[in-house]
Design brief:
Length: 163
């Protein structure tokens, strides 16, 4: 089986988010059947929510993996659980200790009740696009355009590279 390139977005805004995001990157490095190719700098970004909450620390990683998308999703959810991620389906965009989202999985298009790839909101999230652009350059995303175009046209927000 050929390895596919996968982009993962990382976010945290509860607890020591700098440490949590850095440790999450190390957990991603040790996933089975997966190699971490690159990771972005860490960025401080404002929360996108109607709920008052602290700023996020965000990053992105580029992996290659032979895992299937659902298997990778389960691995990511296990990492989130290791950082005590709580899910409240009644509250959208709530604060979280750790959020790991599959943004792209090769050229696959998936839309089911568990997983949507490309991530449905990626073009609206500068905190995802800017770190992805840092590690993948002007990648073309079928149906959406180039990363450069997406970064330039995403809703503006506070985003600051910190590490």
């Amino acid at each position: 089986m050929l390895a596919e390139e996968v982009h993962i977005a990382i976010g945290s805004n509860i607890g020591d988010s700098l440490t949590i995001v850095s440790e999450a990157i190390e957990h991603l490095r040790s996933l089975p059947k997966t190699d971490l190719q690159r990771h972005s700098s860490l960025y401080r970004t404002e929360a996108v929510s109607d709920i008052q909450q602290d700023d996020y620390i965000n990053a992105a990683v580029l992996l290659t993996t032979t895992l299937e998308p659902m298997d990778l999703l389960l691995e990511l959810q296990a990492i989130e659980q290791a950082f005590y991620r709580q899910r409240d389906t009644a509250v959208k965009w709530a604060p979280r200790t750790l959020d790991l989202d599959i943004i792209l999985f090769g050229a696959r298009i998936i839309d089911d009740s568990h997983l949507t790839i490309p991530h449905a909101e990626m073009q609206n999230r500068l905190f995802v696009l800017q770190p992805m652009f840092e590690i993948s350059g002007d990648l073309y995303i079928s149906g959406l355009g180039s990363l450069k175009y997406l970064v330039e046209n995403a809703p503006k927000m506070m985003i600051k590279q910190i590490l």
